[in-house]
Automatic annotation (TrEMBL):
Taxon lineage: Bacteria, Bacillati, Actinomycetota, Actinomycetes, Geodermatophilales
Organism name: Klenkia taihuensis
UniProt KW keywords: Disulfide bond, Signal
This protein's record includes keyword rRNA-binding: no
Gene3D superfamilies reported for this sequence: 2.60.120.200, Immunoglobulins
InterPro entries on file: ConA-like_dom_sf, Ig-like_fold, LamG-like, Laminin_G, PKD/Chitinase_dom, PKD_dom, PKD_dom_sf
BP term (GO), one: carbohydrate metabolic process
Keyword Disulfide bond in annotation: yes
Xref: SMART domains: LamG (SM00282), LamGL (SM00560), PKD (SM00089)
Protein name, entry field: PKD domain-containing protein
Amino acid sequence: MRTASRPGRTARVLVAALAGLLAATVAGTPAQAEGTTPTGSTAPATTVSADALPTVQVDGVVWSQVVVGDTVYVAGRFANARPAGAAAGTALVPRGNLLAYDIRTGVLLPGWAPTLNAQALTITASPDGSRIYVGGDFTSVNGETRRRIAALDPATGALVPGFAPAVTASVRAIAVSADTVYVGGDFNAVGSAERLRLAAFSTAGQLLPWAPSTGVGRNRDGSTAASAAVSSLALTAGQVVVGGRFGSINGTATSGVGAVDAATGAVRPFAIGQRITNQGDDSGVTSLTTDGTTVWLSAYDFSGPGNAEGVIAVQANGGALVWDADCRGDTYSTFPMGGAVYLASHAHVCSNIGGFPEVTPRVSRFGTALSQAVAGTVGTGTWGNSNFRGAPAPAVMDWYPQLTPGTVTGQGQAGWSVTGTSQYVVYGGEFPRVNGTGQQGLVRFAVRSLAPNKVGPAADSLAAPTVTATGAGTMSVALTTTSDRDDRFLTYELYRDGGATPVASQSVDSLFFKPQTVTLVDRRQAPSSTHSYVVRAVDATGNAVTSPATSGTVSAEPLPSPYTERVVADGATSAWPLGTVTGGTSPDATGRAPLTVPSAVRSQTTGAVADDASGSFRLDGTSSSRMVAGASAGAKAAPSTFSLELWFSTTSTTGGRLAGFGNSSSGSNLTYDRQVYLDGSGRLYFGVTSGSRRTVSSAAGLNDGAWHHVVATLGSGGMVLWVDGTQVAANAAITTAGSYNGYWQVGGGPLTFWPGAGRTDLVGSVDAVAVYPTALTGDQVAAHRRAALPNQAPTAAFTATTTDLSAALDAGASADADGRVVSWSWDLGDGSTVTGAQVSHAYAAPGTYRVALTVTDDRGAVGTTSRDVTVTRPAVWVLAADAFARTTTGGLGTADTGGAWTAANGTSRLSVDGGSAVFGLTAPGNLTAAYLGEVSAPSADLSTTVTLTSAPTGGGTSVYVTPRRVGANLEYRVRLRFLTDGTVRAAVTRLSGTASEALVGSEVVVATGYVPGQALALDVSSAGSGTTTVTGTVWAAGTTRPDVPSLSRTDDTAALQAPGGVGLAAYLTGSSTAGTVVRFGPLTVTAGA
């Protein structure tokens, strides 16, 4: 999509309309209700980066831009350009109101420099990019007469000959089809022909009969406007959409925007022109942009009759509303890209669509972005926009580059134009700086994959956090969020005592106009220890800002037990371990709602939960033993879905309440339900108010003095009561409870009229109370009960399955009777260790290894077991392999498998390059050889290829492949002799203590007509220990391997009947007259038992 952006209220004719603009920016703003922007809207996740990319600068104002390919063509009022980074008045390059630059680099294009004698107000391109059209106030281009419109060559800037319409006043808008140039502006004639603000020309410059006209509208006071100027045009769907300050087109009333037929000029329906009221001297439509389906129009109003500012999206066909971005502050230009719409404006309030509010003194945001998709609705703000209240609205996106307003026009604006490509967004205007750095008039922004992404959270924006001890071992660190110019969500990381790893982190919606408090929690710190904390706010690309440090001291309470940690991990909104009292309260492990503990409650050193040093509470059966959660924080709404969990022990025969929800902060409730209580027989009840008092109950006998675990849940599945890990009662029909505000309470409380109720206040003990916002599952209930009991060590067990040298080990049979196994550690018996429930390991050598498994459960207990695992070699295994995929000189380096190559002769002539081992033979009599001495096998099969780079001379060239090398001068070899007649002869030879080789059997011819560069494939094997059989198979590489070896020989030389290594060698006969190079291809050596 090619778009051209154009000025709105600009230059001579609109000066009067703009005269009061600055006064408008400091006027009071009426209060307004916020619009809605639902969570999970269809706004794109990201915009372009807010990094301002270096761009050529201008010394005036840019009114309009168009992009063709990678070139940005710029129109405005300026005399000079200068490079990015150059101060005003330096490194000037003359440019007469037009320039072009590369959008990828921001660098001025030196070959495009047409000159106008007055400002250009609009610029666009032909659909095929072969012409650049410019309009404005000028009467001369490149020294030739052109009256307010011209066509230019996109490469040279030269005038297109013959295109010279004579327009009588400013041209403010141009739209171009394949054969027609449409223009709009302030004019009343072209040459001597009347044309009222609209005209069309052929691409040759002839005036066409197309002649719709705009009519003046009315001002707010009812007076007739002075102008019906056209400011913008958009060509789509066989029509020309027209924007400006008019009140009619062809005599048909349409306010500020309308559509006409592209062929006839007849008015077409365009609904939005009947819905907005922007017209007259102080209100209008400033720009139109389209993708062929949607038209985005920008608008302004300064105490005129208009009801629209910001941006409105409409259907291209018919002009029906898509959405209204009801921001206040004139908008001059729009550019849709990548799911967003970028704006050049001075928006100062967008709260009517869920965006930033008005502030005093007023702050304008000159570069912003909206979602292309609908994301909410327009609010009820008192802007005179009753036509749009409740209409669909986009989201205001988190993209706020700082464009500083300039002084060139005297209008206090920054950007006047925005356009771009699928990768770049470019702004033009009169701003002197962007993001605080000098960048005048032009700037680029890029998609994240091309941008430096250095714009991060606002510098020095985090205050020192507040650090509070909020429970046993727990420190809560709170601070106010900051913001980022192009990342809405920031991650807040908590660091303790200068550490490099965060101890807690949270991603938080961090809009600059909606600061909130984020609380990060550090747990399990030693009682009474002091720590220093900082918080880092980090954006999506790693830019960060760090707060000053704040210190705090952990409470003296014992650390929470593993049981309490399990409860918190399962989502408890409050968890009271009970047993400790500090300052009249007992801590909530979540830090949210400590229990107020009256004097009659007695601490006990023991309780229901093993490994919990806090103990439990003893209730004395009086109203002075009622505890209330979060009493100082005020009443909260009773939860509709919840779980209430606790442990109790009693021998009472009069019963009483254990816990519940009530409206009193002292426990003397008038409204209460969500009760768990006992009757005199030890029967446990769970009750809620759902139309009436509804209960479920257990069997009697729970007053036996033992500790019992209770969980009562209410949710969509009804009421459920669990005792000691087992469901004992349920009522699926009851899914609601009383609706009122109150507090969770522990201990006694009113039970009047409740079924089975005895006395209100229990004599007994309570421990480990927790509440959840969900109904716990049966598995969670059982796990909590097990976690409270003394821990049983897990049982370690595993199976081993071996294949050759590999063992697959499975610890799935390991188990923990009262929890779960959380880690598995293996000692594999060969010095290796590994972790995981299922692991595999490849041993280096066959044998029996003692494998030990250690398992750890969720409470830290361990269990171990060990057993022997035996692995064997496969029938055939890879002894060595080398793809020669490296580059070395002065040797062959190290093989992929099999260890390092050892040069036996001609080290300097050995190298590796291009997937080959290179053996140089530079002079007659040269022997070049290398061996893999770290491998050894009684039988081996070696495969490679051999290539000579030049034809043999003299006595020829010999190549050796060694399948068994017992020691120096002790080896079996297969020799290939390359002769001058193209014959290749093969033989088995041996070295048996001296450097002189002996033939084992006779030579055979394996190839004829050999030519340099041809690769021969070679398989060589040795097998046997009393008598060794050596075979060789030779064939043309790339053809089918023969089934029958080329030669096979046996030998029983005693010194060679032992395992050995492998090697390669090449020899140039002494009668040779020229050197050569032998290349060995990728090598594979397999061995058998």
